[in-house]
Amino acid sequence: MKLFRHGAPGQEHPGLLDAQGLLRDLSGVVDDITGRTLAGEALQSLRALDASQLPVLPADTRIGPCVAQVGNFIGLGLNFADHAAEAKLPIPEYPLVFNKAPSCIAGARDPLRLSPGSREVDYEVEMAIVLCRDAWQVGEEQALDCVGGYCLSNDFTDRYWQNRYAGQWTIGKSAPGFGPLGPWLVTADEVPDPADIPLELSVNGQRKQCARTSGMIFNVKEVVAYLSRFFRLSCGDVITLGTPAGVGLATGAYLEPGDEITASGGILGSQRIQIVAH
Questions:
Q1: DSSP per-residue string spanning 119-134
Q2: Res. 167 pLDDT band, cuts 50 70 90
């Protein structure tokens, strides 16, 4: 299934994309799309629905972030060898982990309003996972059981704040709008091979990034198992899994007001984000 959330920011309702590509309203069926929606009886009840009986939403409905109630938003740095090379950094021996503030999460087509003082804003197309159960000290053989869904992500980053202001990744990656998720949250059963998702990103129609998730250094099960060794991952946590080569950092060409970023992830759908001045 492809689940989404629709409506005004902060007032989103649950929805479902049917087999014909129609937006259907799930209001009254489930309260919202959260990690807990992706497992157990909640997921079984959604699978049992006759989607054709759900109300159809207008085609111009705003699509919000595809998951609600995110407690922890975790990112991975340098998880593609080609991106590490363009950043002139060594391939990490272990997953390089940072946090993004959950308040940066946005919809896949929401404009990105630059924050006051931002100056080197960069794009990073990625695949993200949403956990459907807690994970503490799980092995790789159980790790995928904790993943309820997959979605497209863009790890927007202010490189000045990240690298030249205070050397702290979280402050460079957490401004409002720096974490668009979606448009859809694709349930795990529809993603049989998370290592074969195409990722592409263009700026103003010029392709900048093109890769497949097979290029990740640490795969999904390795990442979940690794993180769960050190802290308890919670149902609903989001982990975005790193970007391939082609980011603005490599050339110094950063985003400006008026730029349009389009990103796609195959079954995960596509994003279209306009950069606007603060």
A1: --EE--EEEEEEESS-
A2: confident
Scan for tokens 């690298």, then name that residue: 163
d(CA 170, CA 132): 24
Q: What is the CA radius of gyration of the chain?
A: 18
| Token pair of 66 as six digits | 């595809």
Assess contact for 215 and 80: CB atoms under 8 A: yes
Q: How far apart are CA 145 and CA 200, in angstroms?
A: 27
CA distance 47 to 139: 28
Nearest CA to 74 out of 244, 240, 235 is that of 240
| Cα distance between residue 117 and residue 234, in whole Å | 34
Q: Is the pTM of this model over 0.90?
A: yes
Do residues 138 and 228 make contact, with C-beta atoms less than 8 angstroms apart? yes
Going by C-alpha positions, the residue among 273, 250, 236, 264 that lies closest to residue 86 is 250
